[in-house]
């Protein structure tokens, strides 16, 4: 008798208890799109190979990341691996259209040419076109999760309600398995969750070791509606990313204010007292909340991948969590 095709979640690294829970650790592919600086092909290949070898089976990308560069690279680098063994998520809400070709995309923080640019389109037609073009760039016949990307940044005439209705229709048609919204705005995510339409949210920076605004409404709403949470930006743009917090640490992509530097250093000191490091705490902290299934980390090199795998596997003493109040 022929066996059924395995659910990729079943074979994913660190699968948590519960039906079809997403894996704890995912690979964020913004670096494959040359965020902040060029990622060499050697770095990109090494990072994806190390992720696979380390058991990571969930990969997240978006058209926004390097105006298609991340999707093309990720799809090519995943091509050697069995498709049924991994999950891929990408995003909709912005279409890629011809650009002037007279410079780069560093205004959007990506080191790529501006021969392609983004154009907001959250209509059903735009979302279906974006999905189809992402599949072409990825070289895949499906993605597993499709997020509406940063709807709060879209011009006012664009409707999240219309976009969610389009995603629901595509899920009903079997084009995608899970639909969701990705944002750094907890209020926008809470509104999306309370529609009862979505399966998952990608929450950027709103529940971290340093601050937890999502705890008030968003995460309780996710538990109420059975919506899984994928946490990203768990280092708050860098302030929690190193064992020792430097004066030049970044928070929300700017210079960290003094009060947050002081708090991060207090947390780093507590970690050191217990034989672990600040980034270990930052990665594991969100996963202690029952609504949060996964942490997705941006990774540029094989060394970064291996280090993050070691960090998520680090055993944190319960006494330390108690001291932190977690």
Automatic annotation (TrEMBL):
Gene3D superfamilies per record: NADP-dependent oxidoreductase domain
Domain of life of the source: Bacteria
The protein, known as: Aldo/keto reductase
InterPro entries registered for this protein in UniProt: AKR, FDH-like, NAD(P)_OxRdtase_dom_sf, NADP_OxRdtase_dom
SUPFAM superfamilies: NAD(P)-linked oxidoreductase
Taxonomic classification: Bacteria, Bacillati, Actinomycetota, Actinomycetes, Micrococcales
Domain NADP-dependent oxidoreductase residue range list: 24-324
Region of interest (Disordered), ranges: 1-22
